[in-house]
Specification:
With about 180 residues, the chain is mainly beta. It is built from one helix and eleven strands; from the N terminus they run H-E-E-E-E-E-E-E-E-E-E-E.
Length: about 180
Amino acid sequence: MVDWSYEFSEFTATEKPDDKWRRKEPKFITTDPTNPQVFYLSGRYQGKASVMQFTKKQGNMQWWTSFNQLTYIQSIIEVPGNSIFYGCGDYDVNDAFGTAITTTAYTAGIFKMDNDGSVKWMMTISGTNPVSSAANQDRCFGVTVDNANTGTLTALLQVKMKEVRSSTYNPGNYYDTVLM
């Protein structure tokens, strides 16, 4: 028995029916630690990283927040007993080119939101690929927060940055892992 369902439309009359609009990449369903009547769906919708709040009982969307400088959400975490959550992912700077063959170039992004859909802050993290002719490849794959009232945020990054990889130690086009 299905209590309710929600349909995401492909595009509207003003949106082009291309891959940017067709791609729907759900990632996470999370509950609200302060409101048991709602849940959040995060992922990529209409070409942008998005977070949506739905009611559990009726399946009504309450709000939808999308990020202009974030294409994918790779991780999301709620602060226990609080109305705040954090997320991270990456922005494919060439994604706006649609179906054209381009080199994927990523910038990492981290954000903080309230459970009402308002974004408190968002930051991007990007360095320069050690091989200057190669695309930047900085991505965020995880976040966690210390819930012992210190508010310490930890992020897991995969980067290709000359700022991280010293020019004297194998400065090639390699990935590094940064825990910050």
